[in-house]
């Protein structure tokens, strides 16, 4: 047999497991996760109102229920948990599918003021991530600035703009729903430093903003006109062309006088987050007007604009974090690799692989992970064809238990699912409601053996 550990149960980890069991009839895969719940960003990143994308969990579930795949949740790898070296001894091969767990920084003054958050922190809160903080994101907020124009920026803008009736049937945790239902936010400014033809959002996500029942989308036609492609988008790639067409369509619309306004802004580079008189709380963002530089970038004009904000969400992309014992390219936020094989000091490290965002950086949609995982699994199985497939030292779970680890197995996850269904029913929310903290998750998973 071939025993493989996959670290991370998000899409890249699950697609890796799927490729392995499809391509090798002898492989047995343990999919390990730090959290007691599987699915990574599909559970803790895809917005709660995107039910269709969330339903991908059903496909991922089928892989994790395969008879040669085991889910081992609640298990830390690296510092404080199972050392990387030990994991390598327990399995013939280890595939790290760690994703990109943190956010990029802006590196401008005021970034750490109260009320300034990374979009990741906000997303974690409304997605019930057990490490999330509930710090009154929308309390006393009238105006919010979202920095960045990628799909995460669109997600957080949309969640801020939605009303309670729209959010209630989702699996959003009750505390976040209550806070968002009471939100007094009237203006949400989603701001790009470059032009509309360089925005990173996809058209379906962009168009959704225009269909929100309680929000108008407002555009500054002058900013759109600054984009050289705005006049004639025909030479652009399809996504950018469709984005421009969608934005153009909105310039003709009269606002309906909705309770909330989404301002889609472009050619504004954040320069500083401004404090209120107390000096601690964010009160606005100073932007510098930019213009296209003719090479796809922008240059500053020296002209500034300040936008009021009691909440700033910095949505400028994710970033991978190093794992103790695994090499890391700090500049790229990824693990160095060759076709998925981990490189240690430029040489292939036998038995160690990467897939997903920790391999290629935080880009692409969920489906991109399929081909990424396939490349890695192809490398792994090529290498495995020359190794002796003996048991590396018995079933790893025996060692884990002997060392005091008690992983959450699939039955534990199913208990969490039942607890979330029961919570949704008790709150009359019309479906599942997520458990938001470690204690309730571990209590559900292990009965009374709470973490
Ligand atoms: P992203 O697509 O990389 O977008 C990041 C945005 O931040 C860009 O507009 C970028 O502008 C801007 N930015 C970066 N540094 C900046 C700075 N210093 N100052 C101002 N703006 C800055 O990242 P993301 O939105 O976090 O998305 C990550 C990945 O997840 C993407 O592949 C995305 O498609 C995917 N995702 C998909 C969905 C979906 O399909 N529904 C939902 C969420 C996420 P520049 O272009 O000028 O650098």
Describe the SSE topology.
Elements: E1 2-7, H1 11-23, E2 27-32, H2 40-44, H3 51-54, H4 57-64, E3 69-72, H5 84-90, E4 93-96, E5 102-103, E6 116-118, H6 119-126, E7 143-147, H7 151-161, H8 164-167, H9 174-181, E8 187-191, H10 203-210, E9 215-219, H11 221-226, H12 228-231, H13 238-251, E10 260-265, E11 268-275, E12 282-292, E13 298-308, E14 311-314, E15 318-319, E16 337-338, E17 341-344, E18 347-354, H14 357-360, H15 368-384, H16 396-402, H17 410-426, H18 438-446
Parallel strand pairs: 1-2, 1-4, 2-3, 4-18, 6-14, 7-8, 7-14, 8-10, 9-10
Antiparallel strand pairs: 5-15, 11-12, 12-13, 16-17, 17-18
Helix pairs in contact: 1-15, 7-10, 10-13, 17-18
Bound molecules: NADP nicotinamide-adenine-dinucleotide phosphate.
Number of helices in the DSSP assignment: 18
Instruction: Name the CATH homologous superfamily of the largest domain.
Output: FAD/NAD(P)-binding domain
Average pLDDT rating: 95
Task: Specify the structural class.
Answer: alpha/beta
Give the termini distance in whole angstroms. 34 Å
List ligands, each type once.
NADP nicotinamide-adenine-dinucleotide phosphate
What is the CATH topology descriptor of the largest domain? FAD/NAD(P)-binding domain
CATH class descriptor of the largest domain:
Alpha Beta
Q: Which architecture name of the largest domain does CATH use? A: 3-Layer(bba) Sandwich
Low-confidence stretches: none
| Major sheet size, sense and barrel closure | 7 strands, mixed
Task: Return the domain count.
Answer: 2
Shape: globular
- What's the count of strands? 18
- β-sheet strand percentage: 15-25%
Estimate the helix proportion, in percent: 25-40%
Using only C-alpha atoms, the radius of gyration works out to: 23 Å
Strand line-up in the sheet with most strands: 3-2-1-4-18-17-16
